[in-house]
Design goal:
Blueprint lengths: L4 H12 L11 E6 L5 H14 L6 E4 L8 H14 L4 E6 L5 H13 L4 E5 L20 H11 L3 E6 L10 H13 L4 E4 L5 H13 L5 E3 L1 E2 L5 H11 L5 H7 L6 H21 L4 E5 L5 H9 L7 H6 L1
Helix pairs in contact: 4-5, 5-6, 10-11
Length: 313
């Protein structure tokens, strides 16, 4: 087999330098949590929050269940993070199963609690697989929600983006038009749905730029700790799972520690390639576990600092 000169040069560079030696930590990171359902899950969440706090994320977000099913738990979690830590907490808020007045009331409560950042989403219907329909008297979509939030207060607003197209969008053009509408309504940035290969993000970034969108597009990173679960989630949101990933996780159902090592390796390599392509913002879906997000951030050059320094930064 003939190996080209460029391939040999690339291999030489990879072998000459220590792994991740060229990743300088010059980036912004953020983390996503979900509100706990039980006392045990609450303990796990707060252990994760405290473990990741010294890394100095620019914000941490807390999800909001389909149909607003976690409204109270989301609010309690966000308010406690804002009150008891040095972190800037961002609350997810959706359009589902609520009137504009009810959603505005939730937003007002967040503002009163010192929360200044909202992740504004259309949201998913409570019944899995059902089509979204706006609530009578509610916000019809995420762009309308963004505009409503900005009318209430000068919230910082993040929205969602879909590198492989939202399942409800007819095509890429419609999906990009929707993204532009959300940003034009006042959103500061978009955070992507998770994806599994760097080329997916780079192709999407090119499409976004070609559509005249200049806002920050932050890749959402999901470490794959449970392959079967990620396959199910990927199917729901239209994310392609590459065949090579299935081969890497094959035979590891009874080996959770090995799965953790492989998950960290894959996610870190994805981030390294994104970094090489100019990405300097990363949003990690933690699933309320700190180990993988901490390890990947460390590989990317992010180092823990005393919490007092984080608060002052």
């Amino acid at each position: 087999m003939t190996i080209s000169v460029p391939q040999l040069e690339e291999a030489r560079r990879a072998l000459d330098g220590p792994l991740y030696a060229d990743v300088a930590g010059d980036m912004d990171i953020s983390f996503e949590f979900f509100p706990p359902k039980t006392e045990r899950m609450e303990t796990q969440l707060w252990e994760a929050v405290r473990a990741l706090e010294p890394l100095g994320p620019r914000f941490v977000s807390v999800t909001y269940g389909a149909g607003g099913t976690t409204r109270e738990r989301t609010h309690a979690t966000v308010a406690r993070i804002q009150r008891e830590t040095s972190l800037a907490a961002a609350a997810h808020l959706t359009c589902v199963e609520a009137t504009r007045a009810e959603i505005d009331e939730v937003a007002q409560e967040y503002w009163a609690a010192g929360v200044r950042h909202i992740v504004a989403l259309r949201g998913d219907p409570p019944q899995q697989g059902a089509r979204f329909t706006s609530h009578p008297g509610g916000y019809e979509n995420a762009a309308a929600l963004v505009a409503g939030l900005k009318r209430l207060h000068p919230f910082e607003v993040s929205v969602a983006a879909y590198p492989e197209c939202h399942p409800d969008s007819a095509d890429d053009r419609v999906d990009l038009d929707n993204l532009k509408a959300k940003l034009d309504a006042g959103a500061s940035r978009a955070i992507t749905q998770f994806f599994h290969e760097p080329e997916t993000f780079f192709r999407y970034r090119d499409k976004v730029a070609a559509a005249g969108i200049a806002a920050e597009i932050v890749p959402g990173i999901m470490p794959v700790t449970n392959f079967a679960s990620v396959v199910r989630m990927s199917a729901l949101c239209g994310t392609q799972v590459p065949a090579w990933m299935a081969r890497l996780f094959e035979g590891l159902d009874d080996h959770p520690a090995a799965r953790q090592l492989i998950a960290a390796t894959l996610a870190a390599e994805l981030c390294r390639k994104l970094y090489a392509g100019g990405v300097r913002q990363f949003h990690f879906y933690t699933l309320n576990r700190a180990e993988l997000a901490y390890a990947i951030s460390h590989l990317l050059g992010v180092r823990a600092r005393p919490v007092a320094q984080v608060a002052a930064a």
